[in-house]
Amino acid sequence: MTQDPIWLDAITFDGNGLIPAIAQDADTGTILMVAWMNAESLAETFATGRAVYWSRSRLRLWRKGEESGHVQTVHELRLDCDGDVLLLKVKQEGGIACHTGRESCFFRRLDGDAGNAVWTITDPVLKDPELIYK
Amino acid sequence: MTQDPIWLDAITFDGNGLIPAIAQDADTGTILMVAWMNAESLAETFATGRAVYWSRSRLRLWRKGEESGHVQTVHELRLDCDGDVLLLKVKQEGGIACHTGRESCFFRRLDGDAGNAVWTITDPVLKDPELIYK
């Protein structure tokens, strides 16, 4: 029988057995991305020190960087007061977390006034995605 | 007829009409909390420049700070590549975002090795919650 580590008990997974995880650059504080984890991916993340998520589209473990090489080394793992959001402070290999080839997935900023606002793309593409995912 | 602003079209709300929103201190980069928004709370947030969430427990708009006084002034609003997570860069009035009286909800850090880890409370209570919520 496999026994779950007791620290997993503090975590409230949702109805699908998942919890959102924020990846934040450990040095700069930049928020890189948000993805999902299940108990297995979280346990592997903590055991190996590399971010492993659960891909909701592919329905399998997603070892971040497995295709792109853009792995995330986890420096710190935090849990919020309700136990339903994780925060990973990471070192982002290659400086690119987003599948669009940008550092961060949060590259759109809402500009203008409320009635007439637009999403402005503020961050540059650092590497062509076609070169990242060959 | 009320027409939704076109910038809302870029957002993918979940099956309950909600999207998670990360509040990050605009100056320090500290991640303060994660809460949920619906279209109405997001539109009010952008229109007023103050963070308004949707309370999933109380099933109503939650104007952050309405009881505690700990309002969040929104400096920037960002959206991720998938359009399903928001990032708010805020100024946190009172320096306390968490209902426990701490600056951040992410006050627990996972320490130890994988087989024998514990959640360590790393952040001090800045104000007794009983004095915050009178």
TrEMBL record, chains A, B:
Alphabetical UniProt keywords: Amino-acid biosynthesis, Cytoplasm, Histidine biosynthesis, Hydrolase, Magnesium, Metal-binding, Zinc
CC cofactor: Mg(2+); Zn(2+)
Residue span, Phosphoribosyl-AMP cyclohydrolase domain: 33-107
A Pfam family reported for this protein in Swiss-Prot or TrEMBL: PRA-CH
GO BP, one annotated term: L-histidine biosynthetic process
Localisation: Cytoplasm
Top EC class, one word: hydrolase
Pathway: Amino-acid biosynthesis; L-histidine biosynthesis; L-histidine from 5-phospho-alpha-D-ribose 1-diphosphate: step 3/9; Amino-acid biosynthesis; L-histidine biosynthesis; L-histidine from 5-phospho-alpha-D-ribose 1-diphosphate: step 2/9
Entry EC no(s): 3.5.4.19
Keyword Protein biosynthesis in record: no
Signal peptide residue numbers: none
Any single Gene Ontology cellular-component annotation: cytoplasm
Residue sites binding Mg(2+) per the record: 80, 82, 84
Cofactor, free-text remark: Binds 1 Mg(2+) ion per subunit. Binds 1 zinc ion per subunit.
GO molecular function list: magnesium ion binding; phosphoribosyl-AMP cyclohydrolase activity; phosphoribosyl-ATP diphosphatase activity; zinc ion binding
Record-linked InterPro entries: PRA-CH, PRib_AMP_CycHydrolase_dom, PRib_AMP_CycHydrolase_sf
Binding site for Zn(2+): 81, 98, 105
Catalytic activity: 1-(5-phospho-beta-D-ribosyl)-ATP + H2O = 1-(5-phospho-beta-D-ribosyl)-5'-AMP + diphosphate + H(+); 1-(5-phospho-beta-D-ribosyl)-5'-AMP + H2O = 1-(5-phospho-beta-D-ribosyl)-5-[(5-phospho-beta-D-ribosylamino)methylideneamino]imidazole-4-carboxamide
HAMAP family per the UniProt record, alphabetical: HisI
Family: In the N-terminal section; belongs to the PRA-CH family.
PANTHER family the record matches: HISTIDINE BIOSYNTHESIS BIFUNCTIONAL PROTEIN, HISTIDINE BIOSYNTHESIS BIFUNCTIONAL PROTEIN HIS7
Subunit note: Homodimer.
Role played: Catalyzes the hydrolysis of the adenine ring of phosphoribosyl-AMP.
Protein name, per record: Phosphoribosyl-AMP cyclohydrolase
Species assigned in the record: Pollutimonas bauzanensis
Gene: hisI
